[in-house]
Amino acid sequence: MGKAARIVITLAVIAAFVAAIVYWQRPEPVAVELVAVEQGQVAATAANTRVGTVEACRRARLSPAVGGQVARLPHREGEHARAGDLLVELWNEDLQARLELAEQERNAARARAEATCHKADVADREASRLVRLGESGAVSEEQVDQAVTAARARRADCRASRASIQVSAARVALARANLEQTRLRAPFDGVVADLSTERYEYATPSPPGIQTQPVIDLIGSSCFFVSAPIDEVDAPAVETGMPAVITLDAFPGAEFAGRVRRVADYVVDIEKQARTVEVEVAFASGERPDRLLAGYSADVEIVLEARDPVPRIPTEALMEGGRVLVLAADGRLAEREVETGLANWEYTEITAGLAPGERVVLDHRREAVHAGLPARAAEAVP
């Protein structure tokens, strides 16, 4: 064997040895979470910056119009009341007596008016008879004049008596109004959420300009909405009628459709907090959960614009600078720039740079994951 052949063989052996070393020392493909580019809906949204609150459409903190000792409390805390139901009644026997007296005076005025008007009718007939007799000369002109004047006076008395009935009726209405001031009635159907008094205690109304604790907190149970603050930057894009998604801590995992019913006309400026605008989102028909209570914490996500279907990827797959890691055909990770459209916390629209079906890396924030590494799809975790 010649010298040249031996050199070739030696080099071949060395190359094979080096190749074997490289092969056995090659890095193992890193397991990464992959997701394919898919077609679906992407929506631009605005979410609340601080936790929102479920509010009742109708809520009233009520106190009697006058002060007095509590005599009746027909409804207790947690009980439902219908519109017009009596909630609180103060001691009012004196006012009831005044009302009864006014009603009796009205009845007496009616009787006096009836008697006076009957006398006026008699006087009218007598005057008419004397007028006919006077025309024939049977009675003097003086007698006729006296009879006509007396009939007119009686008719005036009748009118005065009837007017006194109206005066008496007004006194009855006043007495009844004074009596009703001692009775607090439900202005709408609702539940008694709080009751701050008991029988025989003294209840007082709030003086002008001074806020005191109400006697009853009545909450309507037929209509609710969510009040939540959004950042002032998002406020110009939000309009009434926009669709929204409501989530409640009390109902984990559930989402409820809603619509924006109000956008505040001013910015809330609270020290050491971002400036926000309050929005109200009403539950869509049939979307309100059972046993919903005023005061629950809630979050809203208002849909500003939506496109469907468009290529999309999970937003967490995006890296800084609009880049993604793609698992290339050679089994290695490759960095690629993409162009994006609408985006939210969950999905981002891809307008260029990726084709449907291509797979991008979700867990790109791991130190062991970077472009150029061989990779494989991580096994699904049960």
Verbal overview:
The protein has 382 residues and is an alpha+beta fold. It folds into four domains: 30-42 and 307-377, conserved putative lor/sdh protein from methanococcus maripaludis s2 fold (Beta Barrel), CATH 2.40.420.20; 47-55 and 222-306, Beta Barrel (Elongation Factor Tu (Ef-tu), domain 3), CATH 2.40.30; 60-90 and 186-219, RNA polymerase II/Efflux pump adaptor protein, barrel-sandwich hybrid domain (OB fold (Dihydrolipoamide Acetyltransferase, E2P), Beta Barrel); 93-180. It has three helices and 23 strands. The chain has helices at 3-24, 93-136, 141-180; strands at 30-32, 34-36, 38-47, 52-56, 59-62, 68-72, 80-81, 86-90, 183-185, 190-195, 202-203, 216-219, 224-231, 243-248, 256-263, 276-283, 297-314, 323-327, 333-337, 339-343, 347-352, 359-361, 375-377. Strands 4-13-16-15-14-17 form a six-stranded antiparallel barrel. Strand 18 (323-327) and strand 19 (333-337) form a beta hairpin. Helix 2 runs antiparallel to helix 3. The longest helix has 44 residues, at 93-136. The radius of gyration is 44 Å and the shape is rod-shaped.
